[in-house]
From TrEMBL:
<dbReference type="InterPro" id="IPR001466">
    <property type="entry name" value="Beta-lactam-related"/>
</dbReference>
<feature type="domain" description="Beta-lactamase-related">
    <location>
        <begin position="20"/>
        <end position="398"/>
    </location>
</feature>
<dbReference type="InterPro" id="IPR050789">
    <property type="entry name" value="Diverse_Enzym_Activities"/>
</dbReference>
<dbReference type="Pfam" id="PF00144">
    <property type="entry name" value="Beta-lactamase"/>
</dbReference>
<dbReference type="InterPro" id="IPR012338">
    <property type="entry name" value="Beta-lactam/transpept-like"/>
</dbReference>
<protein>
    <submittedName>
        <fullName>Serine hydrolase domain-containing protein</fullName>
        <ecNumber>3.1.1.103</ecNumber>
    </submittedName>
</protein>
<dbReference type="GO" id="GO:0016787">
    <property type="term" value="F:hydrolase activity"/>
</dbReference>
<keyword id="KW-0378">Hydrolase</keyword>
Amino acid sequence: MNVETDPSSAGFDADRLKRIDRHFDAYVDDGRLPGYLAVVSRHGRIVHVASHGKRDVESGAPVEPDTIWRIFSMTKPITSVAAMTFVEEGLIDLTDPISRWLPEFAAPQVYVKGSALSPMTVPATEPIRLWHLLTHTSGLTYGFHHTHPIDTIYRAAGFEWGTPPGLDLAACTRALAELPLVFQPGSEWNYSVSTDVLGRLVEVLAGKPLDEVFAERIFGPLGMTDTGFFTKDTDRLAALYVAHPRTKLPTRNEAFGSIGVSRPDSFSGGGGLVSTAADYHRFTQMLLRGGALDDARILGPRTVDLMASNHLPGHVDLEAFGRPLFAEMPFDGFGFGLGFSVLEDPVKAKTLSSPGEYAWGGAASTAFWVDPVEDLTVAFYTQLLPSSTHPIRQQLRQLVYQAIVD
């Protein structure tokens, strides 16, 4: 990743942009992060690249422009884009029940009360539809939430930070369909395995594995040559660290660090990809340009606009409609679209960003956002679990927008 234009030609103050470097260099120098890479682009040109530290602290290997990162939930927008290509082809509609293609979801049960060992359920009054998966309003959940009896049931079934060993995506989806929903589909927002189920739906629609769908419909056309569910070039893959529970300093985690080094049993559309800053930059530029980049058109501009609109009822934010659990973005002022958070109210969110900004992040503290108003994309890469350890994303927004002076 290289700077492509003088920052002043894109409306930035170059000296103010350097505050990004100073701020996050301090994160590395005092040990809060192993290393990082940040990319700022405006009007289609990269105006600033900041990086410091190690991609592997123990070996001393530095962060480099072509470092490969585990992007975890930044996989979700890619899966969502893939699904919308089938909507554009007329193979599925946003309101279609997913049971048409995934019959295991024909009769979901919804939790009412009781313990994880003895839950009481009732039949769903509304089928899970495609838009429920895209908006995390399906009633599915994550085992790592640790707040609801159904979360406990997920963990007991092998769904916490991964999937049961030996099960492919089809088998995982069938297993998830047997578990109760947390709420009636469409009635609330809850960060969940919805996008993993969406990945299986994409496989069925395409008649081929998810990795092939991504390669044919997104990665190949966009030239994203370093993005996939694993990499053979493990020397470039950044090591993964977990924040120490007391000091918050990075501690190498070999168990999580095995992710991305070999073909997984299940292709996780919710969090399984590895990528580079250059590759994901091409993905965000495609979105900012209305679904096309160079000679490749992935989506139509109206489809991108629909995805980047707040689909929560009445344009409310996640604080009003979502369960107060962990997600990769704040709840105040942010709604949710078809695969992204959507900034509804910058004042409520206490951010300098623009209304209509859409974004998401990954569990290892990676993040991106697209701001159509400012014609801006920003991405940040590091490898520290969990992403809630430090307020990196809000700080990065502040540092980027304070440098825009036009």
